[in-house]
Design brief:
- The protein is of the alpha+beta class and 153 residues long.
- The protein has three helices and four strands, in the order H-E-H-E-E-H-E.
- Helices cover 31% and strands 27% of the residues.
- The protein starts with a helix and ends with a strand.
Length: 153
Amino acid sequence: MQKRLLLAALFLAVAGCASPPAVSVHTHDPASATLQGDATRPAQAQWIRTELYFSVGTLEGKEGAVSPARWREFLDQEVTSRFPDGFTVFDAYGQWRDHGAREPERLATKVIVILHENSAKNIANIEAIRLAYKRITGDLSVLRLSQPAQVSF
């Protein structure tokens, strides 16, 4: 009897852990690898891939480091608010040598990749992100690389 009660309790506990099925983002039309008919992402748009490189501190973790919480706050306030449809962030290593310096500065780096339509508003948003980070951290620069991109959703 005790064994049956234990099995019943175990079954109920496991069943209680089940969650409702997630909403699928997968295609129901395997004949097409792209998202078709989305007016917010027109196929004929001129797309740009912009990469932004942010120093988050020295590799040794000395002063000037941006904490993970502060980075997340920056993303939420400055990047997500301007590009709510999405972007990608990579952790990276970077180094650069200032004019006249003997050794390069070795830095923990974050790279944000944003795929966006080529518009004055998006370009202004990119510049606002760069300026905000420089204002917040006191860094002298945020490297920007922008190039045309062929995009398909």
